[in-house]
TrEMBL record:
Belongs to the leucine-binding protein family. InterPro entries: BCAA_transport (IPR051010), Leu-bd (IPR028081), Peripla_BP_I (IPR028082). It comes from Minwuia thermotolerans. Residues 1-22 form the signal peptide. This is ABC transporter permease. The keyword Transport applies.
């Protein structure tokens, strides 16, 4: 009788920990903004996730002998909906792990749910520093780069002595965190941030914003740059370029973006910045597989967020293997400090805040015949140890 009771207790413990003896699947919830202004990012992220799971499992879509099931949920970029869907996935559908979302605002609403259910939320690709900073909890990991990594890389690219910079960003967590991190990263570079301009996420007319920026920069001495941090539609780069800032000696700069957005970069040949990914830049076996496979299946190269989604898929499989289960505490132990290979090369989950440390790329825009978008040509690889990414939690 004692042996039977002991076996029952052990089974109950394993069920509660996330590895049901009767359940032959690993359930991963992908909760992301499938519809709305960031749907292009979402499509890439999901495609990359599925490719990452395929690559990491060598096509079996199994880990530890269990089938991987991916549950898709659409936040529609609504924070309340993201929070409810994550609770539904963890609670009703018994997801072992969740991945997403696209929007930083939605991500911030979802973080407490992971803590409440004591299950892992792997954030990809939302960027705001506060996700692995002030709003962080120990159940949050992130493969996506954060605002500080973007900012530090761009500060390396354009933050030179005597340069005067104004910023244009979206007026929500992604934009404000990004500018704050960029401002911090410029410290000691010799460059000066002289103006910050924020616009609503759905802005399409940048006339008044541009005029305030021009007024702030036009009488400054030396090199003058407007640095933009923008996600989704609106095309501020193209619209500001059409206003001819060069008449005031002002240049434009921004980070990398998805291929359709890079079409707008054709108006700024020679522009420098830093990017998270462009498919021709990383030279490693994972990226070689991604580029070849994506071209064969979708008749196009992989994009910005495809690489991020793939990194998330690989990270999850590697973590489960290392942990030997989907039990949360085992996963946390396995993931803290874990190194894994991605289309960008090595990533490392920093133990202090679970942010993935990763290389970035200093680029210069070139126009190539037969390529419809502007090409970010590699100037320099910004290595992990070249970026002192702050711990903000």
């Amino acid at each position: 009788m004692r042996r039977l009771l002991g076996a029952a207790a052990m089974a109950a413990t394993m069920v509660g920990a996330g590895m049901s003896l009767a359940d032959d699947t690993v359930k991963i919830a992908h909760i992301y903004g499938k519809t709305g202004p960031l749907e292009a990012y979402a499509q890439q992220s999901h495609r990359g996730l599925m490719l990452g799971l395929e690559y990491a499992t060598e096509g079996t879509m199994e880990v530890l002998g269990q089938k991987i099931e991916v549950i898709e949920k659409d936040t529609q970029l609504k924070p309340d909906q993201g929070r409810a869907l994550l609770a539904e996935a963890y609670g009703d559908e018994e997801a072992d792990i969740a991945i997403g979302p696209v929007s930083s605002g939605v991500a911030l609403a979802m973080l407490p749910v992971a803590q409440e259910y004591q299950k892992i939320l792997l954030v990809e690709p939302a960027v705001a520093d506060s996700i692995t900073g002030s709003a962080w909890n120990r159940y949050i990991f992130r493969t996506g780069r954060n605002s500080s990594q973007d900012a530090i890389a761009n500060a390396v690219a354009i933050g030179k002595p005597g340069v005067k910079i104004a910023t244009l960003a979206q007026d929500y967590a992604f934009g404000r965190d990004g500018v704050a991190a960029f401002k911090e990263a410029l410290a000691g570079s010799g460059a000066e941030l002289v103006h910050e301009e924020y616009a609503p996420q759905d802005t399409t007319d940048f006339t008044s914003h541009a005029q305030r920026i021009f007024d702030a920069l036009k009488d400054e001495e030396g090199r003058k740059i407007i640095w933009m941090i923008w996600a989704g539609k609106g095309n501020p780069l193209g619209k500001l370029a059409a206003m001819e800032p060069s008449r005031f000696g002002i240049e434009l700069a921004t980070g990398g973006n998805i291929l359709p957005a890079l079409v707008a970069y054709r108006v700024v040949p020679g522009m420098e910045g830093a990017t998270y990914y462009y498919y021709e830049i990383p030279q490693n076996p994972v990226n070689d597989w991604l580029v070849k496979t994506h071209q064969e299946r979708f008749d196009s190269p992989p994009d910005f967020f495809t690489a991020g989604g793939m990194a998330a898929g690989i990270a999850i499989v590697e973590a489960i293997r290392k942990a030997g289960s989907t039990e949360t505490e085992a996963l946390i132990k396995a993931m803290e400090g874990m190194e894994f290979q991605t289309p960008k090369g090595k990533m490392i989950f920093r133990a202090k805040d679970h942010q993935a440390l990763q290389e970035m790329y200093h680029f210069k825009i070139a126009i190539e015949d037969g390529v419809e978008w502007a090409v970010p040509k590699l100037v320099d690889v910004i290595e992990i140890d070249e970026m002192d990414v702050p711990v903000r939690n």
